[in-house]
Amino acid sequence: MTHILLTRPEEKSQQLAEHLAEKSIKSIIQPLLALEAITVSEQQLGMLDDADIVLFVSQDAARFLHALKPELAKNSVCLAVGKSTAEVVTELFEKPCASPIVETSEGLLAMPELNNVASKRIVLVKGKGGRNKLAKELKEREAIFQPLAVYQRLTNPELTIELAQTWQQRGVDSVVLTSNASIDSFLAVATNKSWLETLTVFLVSERCVDYFNEKAQAKQIINCQGADNESILNAILEQHKPQQSHAMEQEKDITAKSTISDKPANKPKPATGAVKAPTEKQSGTGKAIAVVALLVSLTAVGGLGYGYTLFQQQKNFLVQLNNEKNSLSEQIAAANAQAISLQGQNQQLQNALSAQLVQAESALTQKIEQQLQVANQQEPELNREEVKSLYRMAEFKALVQADYLGAAAMLARLDVLLESFPGTQPAREALHQDIQALNAVQTVDVESIYLRLSGLIANLDKLPLNMVVLPEEADKVKQQALSDNVDDWQANLKRSWDLLVDDFIKVRKRTAPIEPLLSQEEQALIRHQLRFYMVQAQTALVKQQAVMFTAALQQAAEVLNNYYDVQASEVVYLNSQLSALQSQPLAFNPEFTFSSEAAIKELL
User: Fold this and answer.
1) Edge to edge, what strands does the sheet with 144-155 contain?
2) CB-CB neighbours of 385 under 10 Å
3) How many other C-beta atoms can be found within 10 angstroms of the C-beta atom of residue 565?
4) 18-32, 434-448, 473-487, 572-586, range with the lowest pLDDT
5) 3-class SS at 155?
6) pLDDT tens profile 264-276
7) Residue 113 per-residue DSSP state
8) Stretch (H or E) spanning 234
9) How crowded is the C-beta side of 68, counted as CA atoms within 13 Å?
């Protein structure tokens, strides 16, 4: 009789134990591992935000991740190693999750979703350790692989060598192990090699089979081809069938050996002519022998009766088994008939669905063609929001930013948009009128004037001031000789005095008027004043103060004409520049009115 040790967590093992009990198979539940959550940082959970594919290796991985309340990317694809894990992922995260037919790492890697994964972000949700083959293979496929461990397996503290001995004493002959970690925990306490060699070990993948073979020897190792309860149950039942057949053969052999013929034995007939011996009186010893013989006869009869009773019980049991066999045969025949009927119905349903699909595709194709024809016949619809946006942008550039050329460009784009739609000719004519008006608006080139003033200010220190210029000396009076006439005594006296003074003091006469000289401080003040007015004109220009700009230039011209040499070429040039700047029109914010506003409103 099979007696199986179930080593998965209590809940999963309990479900499997109930299914086994229905098949009259004994089991013992003893979890080998305890699961514990691992601290996961926000940065690690953030990997899920950009993940293209999320892989789940077990139901526990899905449940522990869900407890952290992460947000999976909307466009991410979820894949699971097994069907049960995929169902749990779908239930917890409300996202479809696919699983391979072969519920192993190899089966998962063979899925089409993992064929072309170069440069894709793949997050593997798992327990701590394990699944190295997935990581290695996905990296070789040039995927951006990121493992996310959310729990770890710990050995159950209840496991001891004494506990393993009790398994042996209770007749455990099979064990279910679902991971490499459970294999390590089991072998750590199951130290009796002779008992191990009598066990049938049920494993869930080829990876676990290879790992167990490296660690220990067993009577038989069976790959369940999946970690879900259904795969494990099917493998156990498949293994249990030969044992049942062998037990039934043994029962038949026992029944055949214990069968006793119900025909009485033939007693020998007395010989003809035989003479009956005279009866003699029996002695005491004879009586004892007779009693013993009687007891032996009674015992033999009782044995025969018990054997007959046992034979009847076995015969009844065989009859019952035969009846059950016939009943099962009838049920199997009915099931086969029903299967054939269902197969026929399924074929009919498939044919009907195929016909409906063809009709639906034909109807859809026809509807699409009709809609395309209607769409081709319909006139394109004007995007009124785009028209409104471009026009408002043009108004903002012209009226707020004073960027008239930019406003003209916005209106030109709007004109190109309206060109493809009928009935927009009046609006386009009004737009072209505004475009020409905007291009004709004269604006002040502030930057050019500012740089022009900067160049003039840089040369102010080179301008000559209006300093005094001494006139030429007067022609010397020709010296005349003294007169002999007595009447000229005064003239002779003056001439004599001049000759006497000329030897000691020499006086030179100049005929032009003489202007006073400027001190160094006065010269510096005048130059500073002229620079101040020029800089003030620059500031007024930047602040768009036309009146202040003109006034500053006028004051600069007055200082130039009053204190500088107006005959010098440098001063003449500066005067001409100041005059030109004063005559420059400074319309900083010319008024502009859009004539196309009414036409655009009517269009919208």
Assistant:
1) 33-37, 144-155, 121-127, 53-56, 77-80, 97-98
2) 9
3) 16
4) 473-487
5) strand
6) 444 444 433 333 3
7) G
8) helix 229-258
9) 24
Residue 13's contacts (CB-CB under 8 Å, 6 or more residues apart) are 6, 7, 29, 31
| Tokens describing residue 281 | 């009186």
pLDDT digits (tens, 9 = 90+) for 360-413: 888 888 888 777 776 655 556 778 888 888 888 888 888 777 777 888 898 898
DSSP E strand stretches across 137-230: 144-155, 174-177, 200-203, 220-223
Residues contacting 443, CB < 8 A, separation 6+ = 402, 404, 587, 590
Return the exposure string of 486-522: e unless at least 16 CB atoms fall within 10 Å of the residue's CB, then b.
Answer: eeeeeebeebeeeeeeeeeeeeeeeeeeeeeebeeee
Task: Provide φ and ψ at 382, rounded to 5°.
Answer: -75, 135
Q: What's 124's DSSP letter?
A: E
**Whole-number Cα distances in Å, 191 to 173, 178, 229:** 15, 19, 28
- Phi/psi for 323 (5° steps) reads -65, -45
The alpha helices in 283-421, defined as continuous H runs, are 284-377, 384-399, 404-418
Q: Helices H, strands E: what count in the chain?
A: 21, 11
